[in-house]
Specification:
Layout (H helix, E strand, L loop, with lengths): L1 H10 L4 H50 L1 H6 L2 H15 L3 E6 L4 E5 L11 E9 L7 H9 L5 E10 L1 H51 L13 H75 L5 H32 L7 E4 H18 L3 E4 L5 E4 L1 H17 L5 E9 L2 E8 L33 H12 L3 E5 L5 E8 L23 E5 L3 H14 L2 E5 L2 H11 L5 E5 L8 H12 L5 E5 L4 H10 L3 E3 L4 H20 L1
Parallel strand pairs: 6-8, 12-13, 12-14, 14-15, 15-16
Antiparallel strand pairs: 1-2, 1-4, 3-4, 5-7, 8-9, 9-11, 10-11
Helix pairs in contact: 1-2, 2-4, 2-6, 6-7, 7-8, 7-12, 8-11, 8-15, 9-10, 10-11
Length: 638
């Protein structure tokens, strides 16, 4: 039992064929061993009994045949009878002795005494018969009474015959057992191979099913346990295939529906973008002209009453410009036209700048704006980080009625978390995700334009994704909000010293600027502005008109300022290219547009021209003109 348990334990990791062979061969081996042992023992016992019987019979026969010869003293006849009986009964030896034990005759007897374990011995007494059978007996009877002891006969049968029989029996039994075992093993091997082959086939089918091939089947007859298992796997495969077909059908339907919805959403988004681009462009045109006229008026000496009106107009124009710039920022972010420039920079200087920028705005609402000192060094784009914090602080001031705003930071591993905490109205949990969408304002149902367009947090979210920085919001209605920005730590040793800011130069007195725009009001406003700057300006509605004016005065412009959208399906890039080709030089150029469409911003950026958006600030335009003219003349002189 222990042997079989160890055998099963050893074969447990093996294949099912090995286990089946063990199960088939072990009982057969035990049964055959038992049967062989039983029948061999019975055969040996029978052979030994026959040997004993043969020896006893030979001894009795000699005891019956020798009295007459002994009585007559015929030794030759005694010896002859012994030889005959030894040959007939296959005796190893036969001896006759008198009543005193003295040998009379013997045959086959060894000269030396035989070992007891070599022969089986039988003894018989030789007596006178009770009835006279011959004349010799009668003579003898006169000398001795009937039944008198004449001597003793001893016969021996060699035990080597038993040993030979035992060897032969064991050999035959072993051969028989091996033959039976081989037959049993062959039958078990055949059956186990068939069963193992079927199970391997079923396992292979299950493996292919697991890999997604639901068309495979077992192809086995359904009889027996393995057949039932194969039929169950086939039924499972058919059910899985039917389920997958149904699921694929639903996925195709859902994909088609999703594609339709996506196409509709893309068309709606494109229509929205086209609408905002067109509306922005059409609204920026008169606003641009208005800002030019206001800038020209402010440069002239006006009475105090008129100057007040001009300041109010300028303030309203600036407010409108901020709203348009927010739309422009969203368009530029969606177009991917904003590039990041990551450097190592100190956070404290940025916090001081923001404090100077917003302290007066917070004081107007009687809010306490506080910045905690922070000596951390960051690694990111400082301009975009400042824009994110500016939008968060402006949003906190806008929606905080009393209390204050705290701006601080803390180290979190390899990151610095900058937080803007306010005591404002708070944001409900279900609306905390939507506040990062454009045009969402929770506390401005009347759409008061003084509270912005609802684009500040949308810009924050897009800038955070552009930089790869996490923007987090925690808020409770009535308990204020906390906006946090996670920025990677920088290395203070890698901070670049600030570049020296040069004094802005002056536009040379002999400079000539060409302005191409299809809006007459914008041309008049620019003409007024350039008159106040004492800069020569040529205005034209198209490239052809610009060429006529330049040919008439015989001069080449130092800078070309062109609107992007022009009549006759041309644009400012084509106009600049045409004028450069005519004069055979790369004249510095600026593209001005009120279009905020992402593809327009990308096309102008790829063309390599500086881009100004309407309504543009006169000071920014003048600074850019000065830079381009001085740069071009420095290259020409060099």
């Amino acid at each position: 039992m222990k042997f079989s348990r160890r055998l099963f334990q050893r074969s447990s990791p093996a294949s099912i064929r090995s286990r089946l062979l063990v199960i088939a061969l072990l009982p057969a081996l035990l049964a055959e061993f038992g049967m062989v042992a039983h029948f061999t023992t019975e055969a040996l016992a029978t052979a030994e009994h026959a040997l004993h019987t043969r020896a006893a019979g030979a001894a009795r026969h000699l005891a019956d045949a020798l009295p007459d010869a002994l009585a007559s003293g015929d030794a030759a006849r005694v010896h002859s009878l012994l030889q005959i009986e030894a040959a007939n009964s296959q005796l190893s030896f036969a001896r006759v002795a008198d009543v005193h034990g003295n040998p009379i005759a013997s045959t086959g007897a060894p000269l030396r005494p035989a070992r007891p374990d070599e022969h089986h011995r039988q003894h018989a007494a030789i007596r006178l018969p009770a009835v006279d059978l011959s004349g010799g007996a009668l003579a003898a009877s006169r000398a001795a009474p009937a039944g008198a002891l004449l001597g003793q006969v001893e016969v021996g049968v060699s035990l080597g015959q038993i040993d030979a029989f035992r060897r032969d029996s064991l050999i035959h039994a072993a051969l028989l057992m091996l033959a039976a075992l081989a037959l049993t093993g062959a039958l078990a091997w055949r059956l186990s191979s068939r069963l193992a082959g079927q199970l391997r086939h079923v396992g292979h089918v299950a493996e292919r099913l697991a890999c997604g091939d639901l068309t495979v089947r077992t192809q086995l007859p359904p009889q027996g346990e393995v057949g039932m298992l194969a039929a169950g796997i086939d039924n499972m495969a058919e059910a899985l295939q039917a389920h997958r077909d149904e699921l694929e059908k639903r996925i195709r339907e859902a994909t088609a529906d999703l594609a339709t919805r996506k196409e509709m959403a893309e068309r709606a988004n494109q229509a929205k973008s086209r609408f905002f681009a067109a509306a922005s462009h059409d609204l920026r045109q008169p606003l641009h002209a208005l800002s030019l006229f206001v800038a020209a008026l402010k440069m002239r000496n006006q009475p105090p009453e008129a100057q007040t009106l001009i300041d109010n107009i300028a303030a309203s124009t600036a407010a409108m410009e901020l709203l348009f710039n927010a739309l422009l920022d969203i368009s530029r972010l969606d177009a991917g036209a904003i590039e990041t420039h990551r450097v190592h920079f100190p956070l404290q200087k940025m916090l001081l700048d923001l404090n100077h920028r917003f302290s007066a705005v917070a004081a107007e609402k009687q809010l306490h704006l506080r910045f905690r000192p922070c000596g951390a060094t960051l690694y990111s784009d400082p301009l975009l980080i400042e824009r994110i914090l500016a939008n968060l602080i402006a949003n906190a001031i806008r929606y905080t009625d009393d209390g204050g705003i705290l701006v601080g930071c803390r180290r979190r591993g390899r990151m610095v978390r900058i937080s803007v905490v306010d005591t404002g109205r708070g944001i409900p949990p279900e609306q905390q995700e939507s506040v990062f969408h454009e045009f969402v304002q929770l506390h401005n149902p009347a759409r008061d334009r003084s509270k912005g367009l609802g684009l500040g947090l949308a810009i924050v979210s897009r800038l955070g994704r552009l930089l790869g920085h996490r923007v987090d919001l925690r808020s409770r209605p009535g308990h204020g909000s906390t906006f946090s920005l996670d920025v990677p730590c920088g290395d203070a040793r890698l901070i670049q010293p600030p570049a020296a800011v040069g004094v802005p130069g002056q536009i040379p007195a002999d400079a000539l600027v060409l302005l191409v725009d299809d809006e007459s009001a914008i041309l008049r406003g620019m003409a007024e502005l350039f008159d106040n700057w004492n800069i020569d300006l040529v205005t034209a509605h198209s490239a052809a008109e610009a060429v006529q004016w330049l040919d008439s005065i015989g001069r080449v412009p130092d800078v070309i300022v062109s609107d992007y959208r022009l009549p006759d399906d041309s644009d400012g890039i084509e106009v600049i290219a045409r004028l450069r080709q005519k004069f055979g030089r790369d004249i510095p150029a600026i593209v001005v547009t009120g279009d905020t469409a992402p593809d327009t911003i990308l096309r102008i950026g790829r063309a390599g021209f500086p881009l100004l958006h309407k309504p543009l600030r006169p000071a920014k335009l003048r600074a850019l003109l000065t830079h381009l003219i001085q740069q071009a003349r420095a290259v020409a002189v060099g």
